[in-house]
Amino acid sequence: MKIGLVTSTALHVVVLGFGLVSLQAPRAFEAADVESLPVDIVPIEEITQIQDGDKKAPMTETPAPLPTERPDIVPDARKVGENDVDTEAAPVPDTKPKPVETAALPEPSPEPAPDPTPEPEVEQPQANEPEPVPATEVEPQPQPRQEVTPDPTPEAAEPEEAEAENAHLPQTAPAPQARPEPPKAQTAKAPDRKTSEKPATKQAQKPESDEKEFDADEVAALLNKQTPSGGGAKRSTQEASLGGRNPTGGEKLSQSEMDALRQRLGSCWNVPAGVDDADALKVSVRFRLDRSGNLEGRPEVIKGGASSGPRRIAAESAVRAVQKCEPFNLPSDKYQTWAEVVVNFDPSDMF
Amino acid sequence: MESLALVEPTASLSIWTLFWQAGWVVKLVMIGLLCASIWTWAIIIDKAVAFGRMRAALNRFEQVFWSGQSLEELYRSLSERKTSGMGSIFVAAMREWKKSFEKGAKSPLALQTRIDKAMDLALTREMEGLEGRLGFLATVGASAPFIGLFGTVVGIMTSFQAIAGSKSTNLAVVAPGIAEALLATAIGLLAAIPAVVAYNKLSSDAGKLAVRMEGFADEFSAILSRQIDEKVATKG
Which of A106, A208, B55, B90 makes the best surface tag, with the fewest CB within 10 Å? Predict the structure, then answer.
């Protein structure tokens, strides 16, 4: 037993001694001191898309088209240009500047002075004048109308026809242009009645004039506004940056935004029940939205639908769905991408 | 201790420092397990040597016994020195035989019984010597892991209390205490594994030796019984 004990003790001492020497503290794990990197997922579209801008301009952070000359802002314009009305047509440089008919502007200056004085006096007599000459009088007609405009109190409806700016000016100016035309309209109908009615009630006169009279002033006023040169109405005051005239959408609705829109429309859509073939329910609807996400006009069915039967019901249900969902909550900074939306209503996709 | 405290933190996880930093309960457990391990190995070495000797002795005795040598001569030569294994069984049986015949035994049946008893006694004594301390190995093998676990649990308990006191859950604060506690389990396993392995090996070896000796005892008993019959026949 002694031998065993001694041997065992010796063995343990040797092992422990060896352990103390060799089994020192293990080396600490080497943890690489790495700084975390922010990772962005950048869709290639952001790089390949053509921004609003000019081909020759240097690249800048924010896209900006060539600066326009007219600074006044037209709301919701999408195409860059100098026009008042937003049009898709490309701007055409004016090689031969045509004289723009400015019917109202030049003339008023000399005449207004004489006019106001006689008017107040003549008002009554002029109204009376038509009565004695009922047969084929053309001239008296425009005159009473002009009388109406200066009067601020009696008619509020008249200014609607003429534009606010021109409210004062047309008083005298339209006279030469307007005179020849109105008679045609009048000859068609009995002139007698008209004249008789007029004096009786001024209010009765108004609806008639709306229907019948072709007002050259308005046409001229509309025409005068813009030279037919194309181009949009979007204003730009910033320096131009690199880009194209036809941007391919600087931004796109993200997948989640699309999904949100889809889900919202899906929840508003009452799928017509009891229709035999599901294909009849497939409807494409196009609608325009304004910046606040409200509908502009009635949604238009561009695919599917019919004048009767289940297809018509389907089309109507799709239109109703759009109208019901109306204030669409979409990112306003991407308005360009969702100003016009085409939605395909397909029951197989919705569920 | 002073110098240990000054050791750089990475070195503070060596086994020696782990042992010194442990609480007294854990230290006690570790020391106890270390002693058990030393004793286990002492037994293992002792038994291995003893079994080897026994096997050699059995081989030698069988060779001599079956060589055709007279039993009287063999007894004479063996009774003079210390015997083990089959030798001691043989001597015990022969002594009983001699005593009975010298005094002129009357009943051969009683003589046979006495000789068998004497051989059984000698065999039991031999086996007792062989299997003597194997029980300790079994005990260590079964209980050392638990003792180590006890040390670990106590160590982790105290280290958790210390962590709660330090108000930091940083792994660098938590780890040393747990590592130190786990050392107790490691020592327990270190003692238990050889003990279990050795116990199984030695007990099976002891069983084989016992079978061998029992076989010899039976054989020798048969030889003696034949001799007794012959003696009774010649007398009668």
Answer: A106
